[in-house]
Amino acid sequence: MTRAPVSLANLDLNLLVFLRELLRERNVTRAAQRIGVTQSAASAALSRLRRHFGDELLVRNRGGYLLSPLAVQLADQVEPVCTSMERLFSTSPEFRPEESDREFTLLVPDYVLAAFGERLSRELYAAAPRARLHVQVVKQALPADIVDTLRVLDGIVSAPGIALRAPGIRSMELFRDRWVCVVAADNPVADGSGGSLALADLQRLPWVVPHHPDGGYPATFPLAPLIARLNDPPRVAVRVDSYQATPYFVAGTDRVAVMQRRLAALFADRPDLRVLECPGEPPAIVETLWWHEKHDEDDAHRWFREVTARAAREPESAVRASRPDHFTLESPSAAPERRSS
Questions:
Q1: Over 243-261, what HEC string results?
Q2: CATH for 8-90 (3.40.50.880, 1.10.10.10, 2.60.40.10, 3.30.1330.60)
Q3: CB within 10 Å: which end of the chain, N or C, has fewer?
Q4: CATH number of 103-177+286-314
Q5: Where is this region: Disordered (predicted)?
């Protein structure tokens, strides 16, 4: 039988917040921690919800708790209701960036910081000098709970992946890049290379690899298609948990690193390094901004997305300098034109 409509005036809307976390966590203690209440307050809220719905909601089993059939239905309904309420109460007068002191939070790989972090800082400061920016750097891998993470962040910059293809997540492509090879300037492999290495060179040389996964190269590894073209997996000499640190472990050695062109451009003034085209047609790098749908109608967030997209666009001078005839980093004696970042 359908329950009669209930007046909002007769409801404690705090129960809605607890219900959402309870259905997410399936655990009273964790739900209490998520919303910052005591265990006893959470237990009391669960009792009230059970009386209201006439249902246990959480059913104990051997491994913990399961959602009752009614709770499964409620889980589908409570998320859009809470999201709509958050939008309603976050509504404010027209956003004025020159007056705002809002903090925007981004989670990014350190490569992305090198690619356009300074331009983002300058764009943000020029338009909204009082606004604040909190940049969190990805540590090896993105968080497992992507949707929940994006509820509390303004965005994540990352290449597309299965974990990011989730309901409620929006995206916008920021920029594309390509893979290049970095070797020491005195590495014999660079002599007569014609500006590009061969697959046999990548097979023979020891590698410097950022964020190298233990035990192999999963299909999600960015260079997995290139590695698949080698007869054997590359011999890894140095693993480093930073894209920006990679060239420091190439200089003065026989090692090679396969890295992003925008990042390699920052080392154009170093005479002890050379950047060469990468063989094997590795896949393009596509960096994308991801955010939660709850930000769609937020004027401040929409403005921030536009600023981020503008900052990510590469200056035309850098695009021209990235053509093959301007690309190789040589020693000063060769004096070719160098790319600018």
A1: CCCHHHHCCCCCCEEEEEH
A2: 1.10.10.10
A3: N
A4: 3.40.190.10
A5: 311-341
